[in-house]
Amino acid sequence: MKNIFAYRFGDFLVDGAFLIINTLFIVFLSNLANIPPQYAGLIIMFYKSWDTISDPLVGILSDRFKSKIGRCNVLFF
Questions:
Q1: What phi, psi does 60 have (nearest 5°)?
Q2: H/E element, 50
Q3: Nearest to 48 by CA among 28, 10, 18, 24
Q4: How confident is the model over 41-54, as pLDDT tens digits?
Q5: Which 3 state secondary structure label does DSSP give 74?
């Protein structure tokens, strides 16, 4: 339980930053791009839904990919 709390607390700080960014993005879409707020919210919802699907898939791919410099280091050449 301590590990779960520790990982969640670290992610909580990142989630707070993304909450601010997403809020400002909705304001940008509705005020400057003249998109109705409900559609701006849908854009954020689709982004988060795609993120929910793609993050585990990319994690699985990076765990299975082997290179000469080691596992999961292929993106940091």
A1: -65, -45
A2: helix 37-64
A3: 18
A4: 898 899 889 988 98
A5: coil
